[in-house]
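Consider the following assembly input.
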Amino acid sequence: MTPKSILKNSTVSTNEPSATSKPYTQRHRDVALQHASIIEEQKRVEKEVLDAIMTLMDFPTSPTADPMRPSPSDALFFQGLMVNFQPSDYDSLIEERNIADRCGYALCPRPKKKAPSKARKHFIETDKGVEIVDRRTLEVWCSDDCARRALYVKVQLSEEPAWMRRGGVNDKIELLVENAEDHHKALPLRLKQEAAPKPAKSEEEEDVASAWAARDDALADLALERGEKPGRLSKANKDLLRTHIQERVQTAPSVPPEPPTQLSGQSHMAIEGHIPRADRPKDEDEEDDGTDWDKHLPG
Amino acid sequence: MDERSNVSPNMIKMWRVYRTVKEMCMDRGYEMLKEDTDISLDEFAARFAKEDGEPDRGRMHFSCQPTEAMLVKYTDSPTPKNPNPVPQIGTIWIEFNSDDAVGLKQLRDYMQHLVNGSFYSGIMVVQKPMTGMALRLLRGSASIEEGPKGGVEVFVEQDLLVNITKHELVPKHVLLSKEEKAQLLQRYRLKETQLPRIQVTDPVAKYLGLRRGQVVKIIRKSETAGRYASYRWAI
């Protein structure tokens, strides 16, 4: 048997919003939806970055790859994944690769450099003299070249989180590659610009180039279709932006503000329009004078 | 203190961590012998010491079976749609990671191990906090298919040096089963959202391995009422 309540059976729940509170307008709902969609976008991007880091931990695809001349597919893949990254995400990538005992640069297959000893701090000869550095900072890269290449990518990343970005900004990451000429031909991202000035190429190369260009176009179309590139935000908050501008119509002719009529001499004493009584000169017709209480008394 | 003089400080630390983990498993309701939870330092050193006197974390791993009472507690009451509900708990695998830094790689290996060994859930004890990305993976691990069903919990050794539930200022927390929760809500005519809450990241909630939606009964001493019970909804 359920215990019986000693409280009255009231029909009105206190949790219900009272009728006097303002009704929710469409605009409130739009604002809430807008923020919800941003949070959802954030979750999606964070998951993508996590997946990207997990993929890039096992990069490059072949163990003999050369970080100076990465294979076009690897390079393109890497560039594509980097678009969503913030510099902090990139640091995480380097950290994870180091834990997996690899060079911090994602296109380098070599293991990271081993410090000469296990001491926590190390003396390093530099141009400026001897420096004392942490062992961890020594064991990030396989070589100085890889460090340069990796940081070349990092400085191009945008500090702004990917879910807050406008479309079309910063969606190309350049890689620092040696013998750039060969590489630019192979890299489809640069192909369109370079194809026009140098039409005289062997047929095979042209075929390859056109194939890459077609693929690039197709990828761009797909991205467009997904609604990724052009202004993700503007699409979402379409309802919040008013395209129709309403002019403020003036109904009455403008009137200059009234000059202070009474006690104009005291206007400089006014505090937001009020003149404190303490400094006001004595007035004859002032009603609540401090001494007039006995005037009206009989007798 | 005489017996401790020949044991390395790291050994003593690991001994305390190991005991806390054992106690934690017992408090959660896994099968555990009382003798296991208060293993002496000498015995611990004899079992897990390397030649150089440092603890060998690789050998400290163990697994636990849930007790009957725990199985009942984690089983939904049967419904017409689901007449034979499966308990939401199973064998747990506890591992002490010996790597200096723990990142995605170790966490994924661990998850893979749990799945291969068909463990329901796992606890990994690490020396230093994990990397940010690993934490991110852990947060979403309950929902991904590759991980174990019951999820993975990660504790830092530093947090397990003492058993926080033995502190006098920490009241007793008791997990309620689904049935008890329903009775509680009916007794006080509440919806579960009307209960006070406790975060699942709360130290005691982490110790008990609370999941979202569970209710704990907190029994604390009261000067006026003797004992006072309150309830918290894990969120």
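The first helix of chain A runs from residue 26 to 56. Ask yourself how this observation constrains the way the partners meet.
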